[in-house]
Every structure is written in structure tokens, then in C-alpha cells.
Amino acid sequence: MPRAATTTDVFNAIAEPRRREIIGVLGDGRAHAVGQVVKTLRIPQPAVSKHLGVLRKVGIVSISKHGQRRLYRLNAEELKPVHDWVKTYERFWTHQLHRIKERAERKAIERLARKSRLAKDEPNN
Amino acid sequence: MPRAATTTDVFNAIAEPRRREIIGVLGDGRAHAVGQVVKTLRIPQPAVSKHLGVLRKVGIVSISKHGQRRLYRLNAEELKPVHDWVKTYERFWTHQLHRIKERAERKAIERLARKSRLAKDEPNN
DNA sequence: TTGACATATACCCATATGGGAATATATAAT
DNA sequence: ATTATATATTCCCATATGGGTATATGTCAA
Fold this sequence. Notes:
Number of helices of chain A: 6
Oligomer: homodimer
Order of helices and strands of chain A: HHEHHEEHH
Largest interface: A-B, 49 and 48 residues
Radius of gyration of chain A: 22 Å
């Protein structure tokens, strides 16, 4: 099986650095025309259109026509799942003290666990 | 050019749902043997080993040998870049009021911008 | 109508992928 | 030494990719 499509979910969509850059440009909350993004990021127009297409399929951006331009607007709420997911691990890098404490606890638990888990009467597989 | 390798950076590594699940299992901060992850997630062992390999190359997990097992431990700090990046957009979904206010401002600004930007003397491309 | 501008699409291509199955490697147990 | 256990590695394969270039589509201007 190949890798999941970039349009599968937000996680896949934002894996592309250039797509994150584009999101960054749209990050001011305003609508931007494709040409603006092209000029700002200096990425070939077809590439920008394609990336915006991916972001659109996932729902991260939405279009509106204005004359011959297509204005893309960020739908930042779609990024919330990523935020929620990674937030779970926030505690690991905030609060030095808390981290050190956790590390100590972890090790203590492991010392005990190892003794019982590695005993021959409790195989792992 | 093909898609960037999954081992390129954290964003690519966590694009895989199963890798996120594995991270979830290791999320208790303790070290887990491959077999434990296999049993918990019911994913074929070779798959687990491969995914752990990816996570390891990116630095999200680290190994330690204990007998015939390899114990994998989460290096959650490596997820911080993702957190930092997505945190930038947090304001878009927190605080209903703030969001509504922003939306209003945005629209007002756009109304003005459109008038001048779309005027023929200011082309976009 | 004709031409300029803005954006999207269609092709072509090299490449990394994740899954499955089989097998290799390493360590422990008997 | 032989066997069992735990994990990694190797192959094979179908497929989505992102870049580049060229072109189609759509809209405005003269």
C-alpha cells in the first residue's frame, strides 16, 4: 500500500513544508489571491495552485471568486485536530521541574517493572 | 520530485496514523518492547518495527536493549516543533467572541481592500 | 474580436511509500 | 547443540507524490 494521500487528512496535508508556508501566508486571516502567494513565496504558480488544491480538499482553505482571481481564505479551525493531538504531549517539554520529576518516576517504575516483566514466567510475545 | 521521506522531519513522520497510535502507546513515558506495542495495537510485528524505525530516525523515540527485547521510549520533546507551529493558529478556534470579532474585522478590511486591490491600476500578477 | 492576465489542468517522471510474506539475526532456554 | 522467542531486514508491488513544462480555461481590457 502506498502512503496515504495528502488529501486524506490534515496531518498528511501539512506534512509538506511548502503547504505550511502557504498556510503561513494565509495566516493573517485575510483572503489572498493565488498570485499574491506566488509573489510572496516565489513558488511557481502551478505548484501553488496544486498545493492550494490539496489544502482545499482537506478543508484547510476555501475559495471565493472575484473577477479573474480566486481568493483563498484560511480555515484555521481545521488545524485544531493537530493541536489537540500534540497538546497531549505538551507536558513533556513544559516545566523543567515537572519534566525532571516525571523522568525520575518513570525510571523508578521501570526498575520495578523490569524485575517482574523480564522474569521468565512473564514472556512478552 | 517524490514526496519527502517520512524520515525527513517530524511533520512527515506523524502523518502516518499508525505512527501516531504507536506514539500514543509510548505516551505514558515508559519504555515499551516491540511486542507490547504489537499486542496493544494489533499491528503485524514487521510493520511496528518499521514504523518505530521511522520514528527513531526522526528522533521521536530512542532504543535500549534489554535481553532480547528492544525497549522504545518516547522522546516527546521532538514533537514541540509541531506544537509550536500549530499554536500560531490557536487563536482561530479559542474564544468564540474573539473569533467573531476577528471575523468581522477581516470582512471590513477586505471590503476596503477589494475596492483598491481590484482596481485596474493594481494588478495582481 | 483580439489580446493580456490569472489560474487551473494535464502530462511526464523519479522516487518513497506501507503492507505482506518470508527470512535473517540475536538472545534466551532446555 | 537445539529450540523457542523477540525483533529487524529483505523483497515485491501498487500507488500517490511534487516538480517542471506546456497548455487549457476563464475573465477582463481595448
